[in-house]
Amino acid sequence: MKNKEQWLTASQIRNKTIVGLISLFAFCAVCFFGWRWLHNQPKDAGALKPLRTVLNANESIFSGMFSNNHLSKTFSKELAAPRVRVNGDVGVGKDFDTAQWKLQLIRNAGDTQYISLAEIKALPKTEIIFDFKCIEGWSQVTHWGGVRYSDFIKKYGLDTQSKLQFTGLHTPDNEYYVGIDNKSMMHPQTLLCYEMNGKPLPMNQGAPLRLIIPVKYGVKHLKRIGTIFFSSQRPPDYWYERGYDYYCGL
Amino acid sequence: MKKIVKKHPLAIRWFHWLNFPVLAVMIWSGMLIYWANDVYKLGWGDKTVLKFFPDSFNKALNIPFRLAEGMNLHFVFMWVFALNGLLYFLYLVFSGEWKLLAPGKKSWKEAWQVLLHDLRIRKEMPPKKKYNAAQRIAYTAVLIMGFLMLLTGLAIYKPAQLYWLCAMLGGYEWARAEHFIITILFVLFFVIHIIQVVLAGWNNFRGMVTGFEVVPGEKEPSAKDAATVNQSSDHHPNQAI
Predict the structure, then answer these.
(1) What tens digit of pLDDT does each residue of B137-179 get?
(2) How far is B215 from A61, CA to CA, in rounded Å?
(3) d(Cα A200, Cα A99) in Å, to the nearest integer?
């Protein structure tokens, strides 16, 4: 231990101690003013700008590990909750005539196609029982049925559009809206969903057609799809505008 | 003249002090997030001994309805927490400091003796180097907890991409519970740590600020001896390890 030892006078010890304490004090000051600086920064879509910058960087880092081979865990039917939690009704107003509904598909600017539920149901049906994850932190094993989004894209000849970076979805009343990267949309577990627990989708779960996208938090599983469009820019997103992460990828 | 002994290298002091604000931000933002689904409690059946957290506690700290803010802070400062922990771990390995930290064969028995000593039941402390056996176990446990914090955190952050990690930890909801439990353990560690630091006194605290501790009760050597001691310490600062 000898060479870790030193003999110092009392004043030398005092000086070293003062230098150390001043450094610690300076460190505390940097933390304090750094925190205050952070909270004085302007906001970008409801989030402090420096935080938003890092969230966007996180997206580029973690979307790099995204793969269609990475699947959300699936469960057997018995494990699906009979009573499915309802969490939010923005854009899913009660006076809505599902019989009159048609999906408004904006293929390109000025080229809109209207698709009926029967036409969607004519496509091959896919079911999934997975652990639905809410951004609030709860999760629930639930059972959904519908058309794989990638099947829909193929059937309607939208390969070029799906190569753009984003898809935007709106409710018929435009009250709720999400933007999602097309890599996640084309994931094999993403559904245009018209059934829950083997029965037609209930009104409060977004009848007649909603999105189920297990690689995202619940906020992106838009209920009652009115419009689908494609974009190379981030489409508007309801919760993003309220300070949440845009990507929300799981 | 007083004898001092080098205790904490500069790097370790930086890792240590940086952890303080970073953990504070991580725990605070974690509480903002946890509020949105605050389902954990201590108790059995219908009996609740302690709810995490009582409404009055949330209200007093102005926690409700700040989920987005909490997530944003959490997913930014996670990088600082992870990098600081990783650098600390690498430093321990490559500097050899780990030998002073990792518990050995005798540590479990000695840690018990340290506990008895700290509780004033036993008079003598077992022999120690930089850390006593209880410290070795506690500080190593904290390092492991930090690592588990990263793993459980990643599992709930990317449960689909890291499905294997999530499955390894018992699934999404278990990983979240584990993440929470480790946080509570961190807080308990912090409380005990602060108490022990206060009890250990100024000389020990100064060790983490300046890097050295004054060795009590050592007699001043002659000027010639002091010179040789100083010289050797300049040449081989790390040889004692």
Answers:
(1) 889 999 999 999 999 999 999 999 999 999 999 999 999 999 9
(2) 50
(3) 13
> What's the topology of domain B3-218?
Fumarate Reductase Cytochrome B subunit (1.20.950)
User: What residues pair up with B215 in beta bridges, in sequence order?
Assistant: B3
B67-95 vs B10-34: helix axis angle to the nearest 10? 150
**CA-to-CA distance for B183 and A133, rounded, in angstroms?**
22
- A75 interfacial to chain B (CB closer than 8 Å): no
Among B133, B138, B145, B142, smallest CA distance to B104 is for B133
In tens, the pLDDT along A36-94 reads 999 999 999 999 999 999 999 999 999 999 999 999 999 999 999 999 999 988 988 88
Q: Give, rounded to a whole angstrom, the gap between the first and last alpha carbons of chain B.
A: 25
Q: Chain B window 147-206: which residues touch A at a Cβ cutoff of 8 Å? A: 158-161, 163, 166-167, 171-173, 176, 206
Query: What's the gap in Å between the CA of A65 and the closest CA on chain B?
Result: 7
Q: Which residues pair with A211 in a beta bridge?
A: A192
pLDDT for position B220: 67
> What are the residue boundaries of the structural domains of chain A, listed by start?
11-39, 67-88+100-231
User: Would you give the DSSP letter of residue A202?
Assistant: P
Q: Which of A3, A13, A133 sits opposite B239 (nearest CB)?
A: A3
Tokens 């997206």 found at: A59
Instruction: Confirm if A81 and A141 have CB atoms less than 8 A apart.
Output: yes
The ipTM assigned to this model is: 0.92
User: Per the structure block, which two tokens stand in for B175?
Assistant: 């990983």
How many other C-beta atoms can be found within 10 angstroms of the C-beta atom of residue B142? 17
Contact B233, B2 (CB under 8 A): no
pLDDT score, position B109: 83
* pTM of the entire predicted model: 0.90
C-beta of residue B133 within 8 angstroms of C-beta of residue B117: no
Write down the residue that tokens 């479990």 correspond to.
B108
CA distances, B27 to each of A32, A122, A213, B33, B234 (Å): 17, 50, 30, 10, 41
Confidence of residue A105 (pLDDT cuts 50, 70, 90): very high
Whether the Cβ atoms of residue B212 and residue B7 lie closer than 8 Å to each other: yes
The residues, ordered by sequence, that sit 6+ positions from A174 with a Cβ below 8 Å of its Cβ are A91, A226, A227
Tell me the β-bridge partners of A199: A196
Mutate to test the interface with B, among A7, A23, A67 (most CBs of B within 10 A): A7
- Tell me which residue has tokens 């939690």: A85
Number of H helices, E strands in chain B: 10, 4
Give CATH for domain A67-88+100-231.
3.90.420.10
CA angle A28, B153, B168 (to 5 degrees): 150
